[in-house]
Amino acid sequence: MATNSVQQPANLHDRPTKVRLDKSDMIIRGITYVVITIFSVCCILPFWMIIASSFSTEEAIRRTGFTLWPTDFSTYAYELLFRSPDQMIGAYIVTILLAVIGTVVGLFIISMTGYALQRKDFPFRNGIMFYIYFTSLFSAGLVPFYLLMVQTLHLRDTYWAILLPLLMNPWLIVLMKNFVKAIPHEITESGKIDGAGDFRIFYALILPSLKPALATIGLFLALGYWNEWYYSSLFLTSEVAYRPLQYHLYNVINKVASLRNSVAGSNVVLENLPSETLKMATAVVATGPIILLYPFVQKYFVAGLTVGAVKG
Known about the structure:
Blueprint: H1 23-54, H2 58-64, H3 76-81, H4 85-118, H5 125-137, H6 142-152, H7 160-163, H8 170-181, H9 185-193, H10 198-206, H11 211-226, H12 230-235, H13 245-262, H14 276-291, H15 294-306
């Protein structure tokens, strides 16, 4: 006896239903798509203009200004940046190592601090939280900080002078504390009932629930280390072989600018020496790699914005 090969759904509710949009919903959705598209294009165009200008000649920039397509295509600005490839590669390696190590260690310290300050059975949490908040409002200034790093801690010409100041931030600690606040305290109590210690509770129960917070704060830490140049200018001298990327590019631009200024009153002509195109190429070299980090943390970053909004 032949049987029908097409299986019918057991229940009408098992059939996938398609939501029908009325005319007003379709108009609103269309307007939303148009607005988002325009906003996205407005965000992309400046960076695209930077890339196009970096591949133009200096004479074309002076003649036509910044355009969306390279004018008189040239790679001279990149050739000047990578004229010493060992210095550029070394700057990349130093910056990547500082960003990775600083982000991992900073996340570990900030997450433990936020968890401890949120524990209801921690007796000194209010005083410590006030101390952290107070340091975000008032500071001793640059001179005591410089003397502390150079004379007391002897960190001049070491990468520790770059790594340590960016490890913790009062605002990031407060942000992590608010993230931990969304985790029920009963989870900690259940871990204690099972005989787990504080560090075991934090590592096995609390930390896995903080993925959105870790991604959000980790992104801030990574960007801070990647864009760092100020501490490098204070504590790293020419005795350091490889400097962070941003400070290395900053020195390249300053050398070109000083060279142009030194021959401004003489008969030497430096028309082909890039100035504006070098700045554009520097922006591409400094910004390009860190953009690749965003797709990996975007979903956690969006989840971090809404954590605690729904209580279950």
